[in-house]
Protein backbone atom coordinates (compact mmCIF):
# COMPACT_ATOMS: atom_id res chain seq x y z
CA UNK A 1 0.00 0.00 0.00
CA UNK A 2 3.01 2.28 -0.03
CA UNK A 3 6.06 2.73 -2.21
CA UNK A 4 9.44 4.41 -2.08
CA UNK A 5 9.72 5.37 1.56
CA UNK A 6 6.11 6.38 2.24
CA UNK A 7 6.42 4.83 5.69
CA UNK A 8 3.61 6.93 7.13
CA UNK A 9 1.25 4.72 5.09
CA UNK A 10 2.34 1.49 6.80
CA UNK A 11 -0.65 -0.37 8.22
CA UNK A 12 -0.53 -2.05 11.60
CA UNK A 13 -0.27 -5.85 11.44
CA UNK A 14 -1.77 -8.29 13.92
CA UNK A 15 -0.47 -11.84 14.06
CA UNK A 16 -2.62 -14.28 16.01
CA UNK A 17 -1.19 -17.65 17.01
CA UNK A 18 -3.46 -20.32 18.47
CA UNK A 19 -1.45 -22.97 20.32
CA UNK A 20 -3.06 -26.17 21.55
CA UNK A 21 -0.03 -28.09 22.86
CA UNK A 22 1.34 -25.79 25.56
CA UNK A 23 3.07 -26.29 28.93
CA UNK A 24 0.72 -26.56 31.91
CA UNK A 25 1.74 -23.14 33.28
CA UNK A 26 0.71 -21.39 30.03
CA UNK A 27 -2.64 -23.12 29.44
CA UNK A 28 -5.74 -20.94 29.21
CA UNK A 29 -3.71 -17.77 28.74
CA UNK A 30 -3.45 -14.98 26.20
CA UNK A 31 -0.17 -13.18 25.66
CA UNK A 32 0.35 -9.96 23.72
CA UNK A 33 3.69 -8.90 22.28
CA UNK A 34 4.13 -5.44 20.80
CA UNK A 35 6.75 -2.91 19.91
CA UNK A 36 7.40 -0.15 22.43
CA UNK A 37 9.87 2.72 22.48
CA UNK A 38 12.58 2.80 25.14
CA UNK A 39 15.25 5.52 25.08
CA UNK A 40 18.52 4.06 26.40
CA UNK A 41 20.80 6.96 25.61
CA UNK A 42 20.52 10.54 24.50
CA UNK A 43 19.15 13.79 25.80
CA UNK A 44 15.91 13.86 23.84
CA UNK A 45 12.77 14.65 25.77
CA UNK A 46 10.74 14.36 22.60
CA UNK A 47 9.13 10.94 22.21
CA UNK A 48 8.37 9.37 18.86
CA UNK A 49 4.66 9.24 18.06
CA UNK A 50 3.32 5.78 18.90
CA UNK A 51 1.78 5.43 15.44
CA UNK A 52 5.28 5.56 13.93
CA UNK A 53 6.59 2.48 15.71
CA UNK A 54 3.56 0.55 16.93
CA UNK A 55 3.05 -1.31 13.66
CA UNK A 56 3.00 -4.92 14.84
CA UNK A 57 1.19 -6.84 17.57
CA UNK A 58 1.34 -10.58 18.11
CA UNK A 59 -1.27 -12.40 20.17
CA UNK A 60 -0.61 -15.91 21.39
CA UNK A 61 -3.66 -17.80 22.59
CA UNK A 62 -2.63 -20.82 24.66
CA UNK A 63 -5.53 -23.25 24.85
CA UNK A 64 -6.30 -25.80 27.53
CA UNK A 65 -8.51 -28.87 27.60
CA UNK A 66 -12.16 -28.35 26.65
CA UNK A 67 -13.33 -29.33 30.15
CA UNK A 68 -10.98 -26.87 31.94
CA UNK A 69 -12.60 -23.90 33.63
CA UNK A 70 -11.51 -20.72 31.92
CA UNK A 71 -11.77 -17.06 32.79
CA UNK A 72 -12.06 -16.09 29.14
CA UNK A 73 -14.98 -17.18 26.95
CA UNK A 74 -12.92 -16.87 23.75
CA UNK A 75 -10.39 -19.38 25.12
CA UNK A 76 -13.20 -21.66 26.24
CA UNK A 77 -14.84 -21.52 22.82
CA UNK A 78 -11.58 -22.12 20.92
CA UNK A 79 -10.50 -24.92 23.28
CA UNK A 80 -13.76 -26.75 22.58
CA UNK A 81 -13.89 -26.04 18.88
CA UNK A 82 -10.26 -27.00 18.17
CA UNK A 83 -10.12 -29.97 20.55
CA UNK A 84 -8.96 -33.28 19.13
CA UNK A 85 -10.79 -35.06 21.96
CA UNK A 86 -14.32 -33.97 21.04
CA UNK A 87 -16.41 -35.26 18.15
CA UNK A 88 -18.15 -32.92 15.73
CA UNK A 89 -21.46 -33.66 17.48
CA UNK A 90 -20.03 -32.76 20.90
CA UNK A 91 -18.56 -29.54 19.53
CA UNK A 92 -21.89 -28.53 18.00
CA UNK A 93 -23.70 -29.30 21.28
CA UNK A 94 -21.21 -27.15 23.24
CA UNK A 95 -21.53 -24.29 20.73
CA UNK A 96 -25.30 -24.40 21.06
CA UNK A 97 -25.77 -25.08 24.77
CA UNK A 98 -22.83 -23.29 26.36
CA UNK A 99 -22.36 -20.39 23.94
CA UNK A 100 -25.93 -20.05 22.62
CA UNK A 101 -24.70 -20.17 19.03
CA UNK A 102 -27.52 -21.33 16.75
CA UNK A 103 -26.52 -24.38 14.74
CA UNK A 104 -27.20 -23.77 11.08
CA UNK A 105 -26.66 -26.31 8.33
CA UNK A 106 -23.62 -24.32 7.19
CA UNK A 107 -22.07 -24.33 10.69
CA UNK A 108 -22.79 -28.05 11.03
CA UNK A 109 -21.03 -28.73 7.71
CA UNK A 110 -18.05 -26.51 8.56
CA UNK A 111 -17.51 -28.12 11.98
CA UNK A 112 -17.77 -31.59 10.41
CA UNK A 113 -15.32 -30.59 7.67
CA UNK A 114 -12.90 -29.19 10.25
CA UNK A 115 -13.07 -32.41 12.29
CA UNK A 116 -12.64 -34.58 9.20
CA UNK A 117 -9.73 -32.43 8.03
CA UNK A 118 -7.80 -32.90 11.27
CA UNK A 119 -8.58 -36.64 11.19
CA UNK A 120 -7.35 -36.78 7.60
CA UNK A 121 -4.11 -35.01 8.52
CA UNK A 122 -3.59 -37.44 11.40
CA UNK A 123 -4.26 -40.43 9.16
CA UNK A 124 -1.77 -39.16 6.56
CA UNK A 125 0.83 -38.73 9.29
CA UNK A 126 0.23 -42.27 10.53
CA UNK A 127 0.44 -43.62 6.97
CA UNK A 128 3.72 -41.79 6.29
CA UNK A 129 5.15 -43.07 9.57
CA UNK A 130 4.20 -46.63 8.71
CA UNK A 131 5.72 -46.31 5.24
CA UNK A 132 8.97 -44.97 6.73
CA UNK A 133 9.03 -47.81 9.26
CA UNK A 134 8.47 -50.44 6.58
CA UNK A 135 11.14 -48.83 4.40
CA UNK A 136 13.66 -48.87 7.28
CA UNK A 137 12.73 -52.48 8.09
CA UNK A 138 13.33 -53.60 4.51
CA UNK A 139 16.61 -51.72 4.41
CA UNK A 140 17.70 -53.39 7.65
CA UNK A 141 16.70 -56.78 6.22
CA UNK A 142 18.76 -56.21 3.08
CA UNK A 143 21.79 -55.19 5.12
CA UNK A 144 21.38 -58.25 7.34
CA UNK A 145 21.10 -60.56 4.32
CA UNK A 146 24.28 -59.08 2.81
CA UNK A 147 26.10 -59.50 6.12
CA UNK A 148 25.07 -63.18 6.42
CA UNK A 149 25.99 -63.90 2.79
CA UNK A 150 29.43 -62.38 3.32
CA UNK A 151 29.96 -64.41 6.50
CA UNK A 152 29.17 -67.50 4.42
CA UNK A 153 31.88 -66.32 1.96
CA UNK A 154 29.48 -66.15 -0.99
CA UNK A 155 30.86 -64.35 -4.05
CA UNK A 156 29.67 -60.74 -4.53
CA UNK A 157 27.84 -61.65 -7.75
CA UNK A 158 25.90 -64.38 -5.92
CA UNK A 159 25.01 -61.94 -3.11
CA UNK A 160 23.90 -59.44 -5.76
CA UNK A 161 21.70 -62.07 -7.44
CA UNK A 162 20.22 -63.17 -4.08
CA UNK A 163 19.23 -59.69 -2.85
CA UNK A 164 17.88 -58.72 -6.29
CA UNK A 165 15.68 -61.80 -6.27
CA UNK A 166 14.68 -61.73 -2.59
CA UNK A 167 13.89 -58.00 -2.36
CA UNK A 168 12.89 -57.36 -6.00
CA UNK A 169 15.65 -54.78 -6.48
CA UNK A 170 17.08 -53.45 -9.70
CA UNK A 171 20.72 -54.30 -10.30
CA UNK A 172 21.77 -50.68 -9.71
CA UNK A 173 19.94 -50.50 -6.36
CA UNK A 174 21.33 -53.88 -5.27
CA UNK A 175 24.87 -52.74 -6.17
CA UNK A 176 24.35 -49.57 -4.09
CA UNK A 177 23.49 -51.73 -1.06
CA UNK A 178 26.56 -53.89 -1.63
CA UNK A 179 28.80 -50.82 -1.82
CA UNK A 180 27.29 -49.33 1.37
CA UNK A 181 28.00 -52.53 3.28
CA UNK A 182 31.68 -52.81 2.30
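Q: What amino acid sequence fits the structure above?
A:
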Amino acid sequence: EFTHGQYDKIKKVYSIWICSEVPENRKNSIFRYRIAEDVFAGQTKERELKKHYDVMTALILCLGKPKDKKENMALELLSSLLSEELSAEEKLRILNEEFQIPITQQLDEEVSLMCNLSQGIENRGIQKGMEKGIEKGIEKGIRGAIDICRKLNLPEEEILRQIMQQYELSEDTAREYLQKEE
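Q: And what stands out in the fold?
A: The mean pLDDT is 85.
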